[in-house]
């Protein structure tokens, strides 16, 4: 089965920036391999196989300690590849699943045991068919009982319509990829101000300052995306997460060097304190609370 976008970088550089010991890559994926974990019949793209062994080797190569593995749309609501990776990684990984409304309590419990700590609600129209909001509400009520949180993926033009729904959801809400701003407008544009205001008004909304490679117009080294991430890190130092987004599904313009993505970190989190929060304290509090001292 051929992927319909670029393959991931075959040999990323060792980053110039060395992450602090215990750093977490809080947004990455495992895909397949398709002969063991087939892709969803409803998928909108076919990825390259990106198996757990490659992800864990990349983690070590980049100098990270742990991963948060996020279920992507190409695997639909079949979380088998994710759970398999979590079982292999043990305490070194946690997961974000995508579930259908008919998931059973026993299935949720099994995922919890494997290390799943959140569900993802995907609103990106090119990736998924529309899900009625009451379906998401029903899932949210069930998973918060497990102590899980919700990860949401949407694009900036949809924020205005979605905001009332997002703020009605219970518990912590993590927004993927900064809510996908249009970086050509600049980080002080009213559209991005609106997102900043949403976070300022809602303490339970967190954000991943990830995906410069997806958001950039200028290309590497992502000078046009840095001001957005930096603004969020400075405004909300205790509610930001960082991730590689390996293996970068759907990247058609260029495939990033993951080492170069790590080198963006000190440009968006400019103090040691900010980097410790971004890479260790925040993801540990959310995904490994049992290891976090109060
Ligand atoms: C990402 C981004 C993308 C894909 C998915 O679920 C997915 O398929 O999230 C994208 O195409 O923007 O986070 O990997």
TrEMBL record:
InterPro entries, per database record: Amidohydro-rel, Aro_Compnd_Degr_Hydrolases, GLI/LigI, Metal_Hydrolase
Gene3D superfamilies per record: Metal-dependent hydrolases (3.20.20.140)
Gene Ontology molecular-function annotations: hydrolase activity
Protein name: Putative metal-dependent hydrolase of the TIM-barrel fold protein
Database matches in Pfam families: Amidohydro_2
PANTHER family: BARREL METAL-DEPENDENT HYDROLASE, PUTATIVE (AFU_ORTHOLOGUE AFUA_1G16240)-RELATED
Superkingdom in the source lineage: Bacteria
Domain Amidohydrolase-related, residue spans: 24-287
SUPFAM superfamilies assigned to the protein according to its UniProt record, in alphabetical order: Metallo-dependent hydrolases
Annotated source species: Thalassovita gelatinovora (Thalassobius gelatinovorus)
CDD domains: PDC_hydrolase (cd01311)
Keywords: Hydrolase
């Amino acid at each position: 089965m051929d992927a319909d976008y670029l393959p991931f970088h075959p040999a990323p550089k060792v980053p110039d920036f060395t992450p602090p010991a215990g750093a977490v890559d809080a947004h990455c994926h495992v895909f397949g391999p398709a002969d063991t974990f087939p892709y969803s019949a409803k998928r909108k793209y076919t990825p390259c196989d990106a198996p757990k062994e490659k992800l864990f080797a990349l983690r070590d190569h980049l100098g990270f300690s742990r991963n948060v593995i996020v279920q992507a749309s190409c695997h639909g609501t079949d979380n088998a590849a994710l759970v398999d990776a979590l079982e292999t990684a043990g305490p070194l990984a946690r997961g974000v699943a995508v579930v259908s409304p008919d998931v059973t309590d026993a299935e949720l419990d099994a995922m919890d045991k494997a290390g799943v700590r959140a569900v993802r609600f995907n609103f990106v129209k090119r990736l998924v068919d529309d899900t009625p909001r009451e379906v998401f509400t029903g899932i949210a009520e069930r998973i918060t009982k497990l102590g899980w949180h919700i990860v949401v993926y949407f694009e900036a033009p949809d924020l205005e319509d979605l905001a009332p729904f997002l703020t009605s959801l219970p518990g912590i809400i993590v927004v993927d990829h900064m809510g996908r701003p249009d970086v050509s407008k600049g980080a002080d544009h009213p559209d991005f101000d609106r997102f900043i205001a949403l976070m300022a008004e809602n303490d339970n909304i967190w954000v991943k300052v990830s995906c410069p490679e997806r958001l950039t117009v200028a290309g590497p080294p992502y000078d046009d995306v840095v001001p957005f991430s930096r603004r969020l890190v400075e405004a909300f130092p205790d509610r930001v997460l960082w991730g590689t987004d390996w293996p970068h599904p759907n990247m058609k313009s260029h495939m990033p060097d993951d080492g170069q993505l790590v080198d963006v970190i000190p440009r968006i989190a400019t103090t040691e304190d900010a980097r410790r929060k971004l890479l260790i304290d925040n993801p540990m509090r959310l995904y490994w609370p049992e290891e976090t001292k109060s």
